[in-house]
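Appendix C. Worked example: Integral membrane protein
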Amino acid sequence: MTSTATRPGGPGAPPRAAIAARTLRTDRWWVQPVGIAAILLLFIVYSTIRIFMAKWYYVEDYHYLTPLYSPCMTDSCVPGSSHFGTPFGEFPFFLPLGIVAFPIVAGFRVTCYYYRKAGYRSLWASPPACSVTEPHQKYTGETRFPLFVMNWHRYFFYLAFVILLINIYDAFLAFRGPDGAFGVGLGTLIILVNIVALAGYTLSCHACRHVMGGRLKHFSRNPVRYRFWTLISKLNVRHGTFAMVSLFTVIFTDFYIMAVSAGWFTDLRFIN
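Step 2, the predicted output written as structure tokens:
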């Protein structure tokens, strides 16, 4: 028995099967891309609103600073929230106080390999699911504006790693009570969980894995980097999980700090 079918994309072969239906899949293939699109849009809308609110981002008594405003380096920041000084003057109302870090973090996530896949499939429907026809008539890859920015991912990673260190420092300060002594509250633990999620997402990044061992020809001659590469490779398997979980931890951390700062409820204190 012989077959006249040709390999997709082969010489003289049509780009797709010649069927009238958009897809022959009968399962609910659209559930996952729609769910991911909803999560991404939720984070985009929430974070956009919050960074332009310019209030309720710092709790002075417990040194809680939301990650959406860290580092706050302008004279417009409330007293105590500028952990690294205020090299910038007063910001006009249309500039978010967290403008130093937010473009870096946003660029890091948008160009992330996992988010690129999620964004293409859910927001751009390119393609929405396996074996489902792509609605776009033309595809130029990541060679034109604005998609060529996707090639800057490794550079965003370097900057995002610095932001992660700043967030870790903010978490360290959150272990101080009203009198400056050691203290732990519910907000402290929430910030700590967020740091773990952000660290997991950042360190499991493909760019981080490449930095550790991508260009090594002899692992035996670089045992330290090999150990780091091995550890990051294990984290890399969970990169997508860290990517989605960290979205929720950032939102929850920011919301909790906003609620305490606004006086909606008080922070539950365990020590001091």
